[in-house]
Design goal:
- By secondary structure, this protein is mainly α.
- The chain contains 6 helices and 2 strands.
- The protein has one domain.
- The mean pLDDT is 92.
Length: 141
């Protein structure tokens, strides 16, 4: 009979129990960070917006486990992205999802409204901060 090497691992149940606790805490921390970030996006976007009636429509909502910051009306998009060549110039370096959002408002490419971004700069700043905050919290466990 061959010699056997055995090892005993103790504490697996405690480890799994702690893992579940951390999972719940991490989910709570992520939710809190996203909630705060989306509220900050709303505040900053309202401050960036040069048209008070558009600023008044900027709001936060939560659908399921996702937070959204929205604004209403085509004018909101035209102010954010501009039209015609202004939109084309602005959107070049933007992420594809923002370009797709702007395309929904495309008419003929002949518009002459300059872009006055208010939402994207607020999103960039606050989403980046939220990501770093979440990473810091998770690494702290």
């Amino acid at each position: 009979m061959a010699n056997k090497v055995t090892c005993k691992v103790e504490g697996v149940r405690d480890f799994l129990s702690n893992l579940k606790r951390y999972q719940k805490q991490i989910a709570k921390d992520v939710d809190t960070s996203l909630n705060v970030a989306s509220k900050n996006i709303v505040m900053e976007a309202k401050g960036n917006c040069i048209i008070p009636s558009i600023a008044a429509t900027i709001q936060q909502s939560k659908i399921g486990d996702q937070y959204q910051v929205t604004t209403q009306g085509e004018e909101s998009a035209y102010l954010e992205f501009g039209t015609g060549n202004f939109a084309k110039a602005l959107l070049g370096p933007y992420p594809e999802d923002w370009k797709n959002m702007a395309r929904k408002f495309y008419i003929n490419g002949l518009g002459r409204t300059p872009a006055k971004p208010y939402l994207y700069p607020a999103f960039q700043k606050n989403a980046g901060e939220a990501v770093h905050e979440i990473i810091d919290k998770v690494e702290g466990y």
